[in-house]
C-alpha cells in the first residue's frame, strides 16, 4: 500500500535521499525546499507523485500554511518527517546572538511548530506518524556544538512529551538519532568567529578535527534512510532509533555514565524528601 509523506529539508542530505527512495517505490511525497529549483528534476520525473513546497522553517505562519495546504491537497498524510536543520559550530562564548537565534529558530522552534501544525490534521484523520530527525547529539555532546545540542536535546524533550499526549489519538513518533554520516553536514556548518583563548581547549581540538575533515565517519546515508523508512513502515516503531555504530556506542556510554552517577547520588536524592512525621 502506497503512503503519503511530508518531508522538510528535502533538497539535500538525508531528506533528499529519503525523497528519492520513497518516490522510487511509488509513494507520494510533499517535500519542502528553500530554493524553487532545488528538486525540479525530481518534480518533472515524478509529476504525479511529488509536489515541492517553498518553505523556511523560521516563518511560523508559512509552516502552518504549508501543512494546511498539504493536507488539503492530498487528503491524508501518513508520515510527517521533520528533517530540516543545520549545524552551528563554535564555543558557547564565541557564538553571536544572531547565530544562536537562527539555530534555535530553525532546529528547535521550527520543528516544534511543524509538529504542532500537523497534529490537528493527524487527529482528524484518525492517526499518523511523525519522524523527528534528531542526532546522537540529542543525547550526547561534543565541545563546540553547544547550541546544536541545545536544539536537539530540546526537540527530543518536546517530542517525548507530546508523544504521550497524543498517543490516545493514534499518533506516534520516531526520534531518529544518526551518528556521523556521509552527508554534507560538515560542509553546511555555520561557524562562529574563533577566539584565540579557546585554541588549546577541547573546543579548539574539535575545531581542528572539523576543519581538517578528520572526523571518522562510519554512517552510510543510504543505509540510515533505509532504517528510518523501515521503522516508519513498522506497526510498533521505537520512540528513539539510534543509527550507526558510533551513535549506538556513544549513546550507550553516555547513558551508562549518567546512570552510574545517578545511582551514586541515591542517598543525597532521598535526603531531600520531606520527612514524614
Automatic annotation (TrEMBL):
<protein>
    <submittedName>
        <fullName>NAD(P)-dependent dehydrogenase (Short-subunit alcohol dehydrogenase family)</fullName>
    </submittedName>
</protein>
<dbReference type="InterPro" id="IPR051911">
    <property type="entry name" value="SDR_oxidoreductase"/>
</dbReference>
<dbReference type="GO" id="GO:0016491">
    <property type="term" value="F:oxidoreductase activity"/>
</dbReference>
<dbReference type="Pfam" id="PF00106">
    <property type="entry name" value="adh_short"/>
</dbReference>
<dbReference type="InterPro" id="IPR002347">
    <property type="entry name" value="SDR_fam"/>
</dbReference>
<dbReference type="InterPro" id="IPR036291">
    <property type="entry name" value="NAD(P)-bd_dom_sf"/>
</dbReference>
<comment type="similarity">
    <text>Belongs to the short-chain dehydrogenases/reductases (SDR) family.</text>
</comment>
<keyword id="KW-0560">Oxidoreductase</keyword>
